[in-house]
Amino acid sequence: MSYGSGPNPYPAGQAHYGAPQQFGAPALSPDIAPLPGAGFGEAVKRFFQRYAQFRGYASRSEYWWPWLLNTIISFVLSLFTVIPMLTAMTAAIEAAQNGEPPIEPAYSTGVLMMSGVSSLYSLAILLPSLSVLVRRLHDTGKPGVWFFIVFVPIVGPIWLLVLLASESRPDLYRPEWS
């Protein structure tokens, strides 16, 4: 028996003396790895490309840029729905105050269409929003079920907001999230 040909004296999985060691976070494939410092366009693109991918990780920018875009779009769609509704309600209230017989507010078909478009948009972004939220929680070292913390009154939404805004924790990544 010559030198080095005997049984391996090191426990399973342990590298021998002088072999390169892996330190830090495990190497992740590009389809599940977070993209720290993603710009607006890249973050929105990844949001829609990974619309139903609940495994993997999402950086803060990957979460907050699409959140901002969706908030702006939802606000604009709401304006196109609420302003005509308020106008119709104001006309009905003024008619009642002037002693005229009560009338029901006449909502135009445009209001109903915009309400439908707003609802469809909200449904369309529901799954991608949940998946990026779960991936963001994974990036902070928490499992996706931590989303349900939002249902704890008062402190739950605040706690979730703090988690979503916190730093990435690659040292807490788990293989089952990949």
From TrEMBL:
Q: Which Pfam families match?
A: DUF805 (PF05656)
Name the keywords, alphabetized.
Answer: Membrane, Transmembrane, Transmembrane helix
Q: Kindly list the residue ranges recorded as spanning the membrane.
A: 63-86, 106-133, 145-165
Query: Which cellular components does GO assign to this protein?
Result: plasma membrane
**PANTHER family, alphabetically?**
INNER MEMBRANE PROTEIN YHAH-RELATED, INNER MEMBRANE PROTEIN-RELATED-RELATED
Q: What is this protein called?
A: DUF805 domain-containing protein
Native species of this protein? Actinomyces johnsonii
Please name the taxonomic classification of the source.
Bacteria, Bacillati, Actinomycetota, Actinomycetes, Actinomycetales
